[in-house]
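Objective 1b of the project was to move from sequence-level analysis to a structural picture of ligand recognition. The entry below was assembled by the postdoctoral researcher (A.K.) and checked by the PI before modelling. It contains the amino acid sequence of the target and the SMILES of the bound compound, 2-acetamido-2-deoxy-beta-D-glucopyranose.
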Amino acid sequence: MASARQVLCLCALLCVPRVRCEPIRYSVAEEGESGSVVANVAEDAGLTPAQLSARRARIASADGRQHFRLERATGRLVLAERLDREEMCGRSLTCTLAFELLLENPLQFFRVEVAVEDVNDHSPVFPGERVTFKIPESSNPGLRFPVEAAQDLDVGSNSLQAYTIPPENEYFSVSSENLAEGNKYIELVLEKPVDREEQPELLLSLIATDGGSPPRSGTTQIHIIVLDANDNAPTFTQKLYIGRILENAPAGSVVLSVVANDPDLGLNGDISYTFSQAVSESQLPFTIDDRSGEICVTKPLDFETTQKHELSVLAIDGGGLSGMCNIVVEVVDMNDNAPEVVVSSFSSPLPENTEPGTLVALFAVRDRDSGVNGEISCALEDQVFFSLRPAYKNYYELVTMSTLDREETAQYLVVITAADAGSPPLTTTQTFTVDISDVNDNAPIFNQTSYTMFVRENNIPGVLVGAISAADSDAGPNAKVTYSLRPVYPAEQDPCSCISVNSENGHVFVLRPLDYEQVRQLEVLVSATDAGSPPLSTNVTVRLLVVDENDNAPLVLHPAQDSSPPSSELVPASAEVGDLVTKVVAVDADSGQNSWLSFHLLRATDPGLFAVGSQNGEVRLRRPVTERDAVKQKLEVLVRDNGQPPLSATAALSVLLLKGLSQEHLPQQELAVQDEDSSLTIYLIVSLVFVSLLFLTSVAAFVACKVFKRKELKGGHMLYGTGNLQSSLAAGAAAGTLPHAYCYEINLTTGSGNSEFKFLKPILPSVPPQHSGTVFLRMLTSSFFFPFSFLCVFKHCLMNSP
Ligand SMILES: *[C@@H]1O[C@H](CO)[C@@H](O)[C@H](O)[C@H]1NC(C)=O
Ligand SMILES: *[C@@H]1O[C@H](CO)[C@@H](O)[C@H](O)[C@H]1NC(C)=O
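Corresponding predicted holo structure:
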């Protein structure tokens, strides 16, 4: 300042001589204290301080404001007040205060100009302490954001010179452009993209610095809010999600959840999930919650169809960016499929004569499950008749184990159980209904081992006498039984003509009347034959017994009724009461009751003299013979059988009472017997030998006759009782008497109705031998009948010989 003053002073000195045209110039810094000296204006005007006082120097300014004071004593110009250049001159670069120094006596003035010099007394000031910007993230570098400039009231070099941003900020720089009037246009320039997700907002200071010395600065805070841009796609936490779910999981079961993240804000970070499958979602068994990313099952899964589902899930944010992940859903097998039995072939019905080991059915088992759930084992319930045999792979064969019998079991239900090895196991049963077809393996069986039927003799032709029945346990035609008569001997062509059997129902008929006295029983062979192929048959014997009817009257044999004159019995007058006179011998061709004979005295010359034994026909003396009794007595004995109604015959007898003969006449035999025991023995022996010979002869003759006749024997009639006859004869021969035997008819001519019969008469003396007379009589009667029987046989042979 001093130098400046000197310059000014020099200038003033130079100017003064030239009529004060030039003003005296000073300069003073603003903000000087009041009273501080600006310059010694008196000296510069060439005046002395005395003159100043004398001439009453004073300062006058145009606006009347007194910024300066003049010290008259010293001639110095001092500041009257604090000067503020900015107030006085504003932003103009020069600020000059002009005034005049007035002097009187003479009036003289000097122009004085004081230039107020700027002092850096103001700092740059921003309009606001804080400025907020919003910039979209990912804006390109170079983007400019204008900032309102700071103001510095100072001028010149004291005015605002530069803007700076602290170097630690890497995103922005500041650019300023000088405008007119010293103004600057300031912009923040984006140097590098901002990522909201990294730095959602920035705070930086913008510093404005002026050129003063020392420089002053002003700061404003710049707050930068980074606006979100959808610059982030959703990303899944995993690229691949693997879930496992049981195949029978109910609909709605959660398989897994996917999670995607999007760091963007708001809508840009708003993720929704969808399947990215090309297939429509309705076909997928899954659904995804678009908000939570939870994947659920919508319908039951089937391991057997799909073991693994592969999906892709898209996560889309509100800005349309998307991310994708892959999902693998493994379906876990459950034992949810029962084994299946598939029958390949099955043969039914099966003939009952099927060999054991025959294949009945071939079937396969399978299970759609896997692992142990698909391991199948097969079992058979019936192990007796059938068995299971693995064939190949999963095929099984059902074969028969033993022989089958339709008659025992006509149908088998073979139950096969297939079970898998799951837990719990699932089972399937397959039932084979095996029908057994019939084979003709059973002959008809008669319900009786033999049949005995009865027919009354003299039957009407074609009478039904009974039925035979045979059953065949086979089925169908194999069980259809027909009956037929068989010849008894294979050689015979025609079976008995008098019996017929209904081939359908087995009814047995007798075709023609039978006579008990000719035929007592018939035997025929009937066979029951089924309609199988080949047919099977069974024979059975049907015995027809002819039942006797009382159709024969008794026949009196002794005494002979046809002899004339009738022979007479001789009775000595000395005979005692009870002595046997004679015996009426009669037979009845009937049998049983019908042949039981009873004897009754019908009439007599003297009914009181004789008694007839009703059972045995013996005529005995009832009382002693007297002189008055007629010599010739006639008796009639009624012989009656026991039939219903009874038939009878009469026997006429004549008895001569020998009065003179007395005791000794008749018993000549008795005497011989009594006196001559030895001769009687000889008689007996002779008789026995004779009888035996006779018997043997008759047997021989009969046998010969029988052999001879054998070939000519015809028809169903049998020769009955020959055995009995022989044995009876033999027995009689052995015992010396005849047994109480039946009379047998022997008639080999067929169809003959006449009752030509021979007989053996049953005679048995009912009275035990009391003396030799009766014994002898017995012998006589016995010996009488053996020849008779012989004759009977012999005659028969002769008659039937051709
Ligand atoms: C055998 O069958 C016949 C005819 O059907 C019948 O009359 C008879 O009583 C049966 N016999 C037996 C022992 O069942
Ligand atoms: C049945 O009898 C006939 C003839 O008499 C014979 O040929 C057949 O062999 C017999 N059948 C049986 C099973 O005995």
